[in-house]
Amino acid sequence: MPIFSTKNKKYIESTEWVKQHSYGIESLNKCEDHEFDFLIEVLNNKRIVWLGENGHGVAEHSLLKSRLIHFLYYKMGFKVIAFESGLSEGYSSNYLKKELSIVEIMEKSVFSLWKSKETLSLFELVKENYDLNLIGFDFQPSVKQSLFHEYLEKVNMDFPTDFLQGLKKVEEGASFWYECIGSYRAVSKRIPRKVLNEFLEASKEIEDVIDYLQNTLNNLREGFINKNMDKEFAVIQKVLENKRHFFNHITTKRSNFLKIRDQIMADNLTWICNDLYPNEKVIVWAHNNHIYKNIKSSYKPMGSLMSPELEDQSYHLGFYMYEGDVTFDKKTSQKLNTPPKKSLEDYMNHTSTPVSFLDFSQLSSNRLNKWLYSPTVILDSGMMQTLIIPCEQLDGILFIKKVSPPNYL
């Protein structure tokens, strides 16, 4: 009995420690910029803020991130939002945003997983502010038909007709094969031999088109330089590079594909931070599983693949939840599993507000916060128990007690 009492006392004291060191938000629906002021000191010397989410179908995650980005833009000068979505889709829709409605920007830029009422305010913010830039860092297509062709038509360059037609063919081919092959991947089925052969034949033809496009672009390079359009040249070059990656890897074994995808996304984000927007503060929107840092296993997420220089400028903020329902495929609602005692979710659930923030980037280890420095259970996507060391994988936590499925548009 004394041993049990000692352990229980330590647990209670640890939950009290969490309460004392957390900041609360009373209402997610009504929160205003000043309610995020606790982040000013934490993020004051950071250039990159990684916003995770423990599942792509969580309304409150999207709403909280949208509110937080409003604060980061107006109060802290963050002017780039890098989404876990197609690079060309995000960039071209941002470039054309004056001509598009809020919903059209959403439809033409990010995966439909985030096309919901909860993100409307975010895309309204993007549309209304010329200096707020949206871009993707994924090499997979995120929409069925991007606006990159329309973007090129507005670039002040005399592209050959074959160049524009060739790029359109590549974009359409990527969208078609992403949907086709994805239909088998989504249900863990092997790609039929007939479909695979058709893809291999089509991809060979598209590879030839990409070769032509890259050669033509290189021949036009001097024209870009003379018109001070180095940025436009670099974007087109990066898009073609990403399309080649897509066709080279889309049929790769799933476990290998996941590694390759994170590496390419890390490379894209590095390019965004160092080359495309070297003087801007950047917000990264992605799943928790992509933003974890210091992962030492054979599979390293993009957050663990950044250079030491960019890592020093980064703050990794994981989003977690305790109870409620979520939607992972936009169709089926699922109830979250109950987190076990002494899990990350369990400790954070002892806070008094519906939403809470815990920073551990400036903490020192003690017996009451030992769980932050030890392998601790989390529920990945609110379902599957796994272990992380919070202080090694993240810099802070935003926690929502009760969640619900997004209101898709």
TrEMBL record:
Gene3D superfamilies: Biosynthetic Protein domain, EreA-like (biosynthetic domain), EreA-like, domain 2
GO MF annotation list: hydrolase activity
InterPro entries xrefs: Emycin_Estase, Hydrolase/PRTase-associated
The keyword Hydrolase belongs to this UniProt entry's keyword annotation: yes
Keywords of the record: Hydrolase
Enzyme's top EC category: hydrolase
EC number: 3.1.1.-
Pfam families, A to Z: Erythro_esteras
PANTHER family, per the entry: ESTERASE, PUTATIVE (AFU_ORTHOLOGUE AFUA_1G05850)-RELATED
Record's protein name: Erythromycin esterase family protein
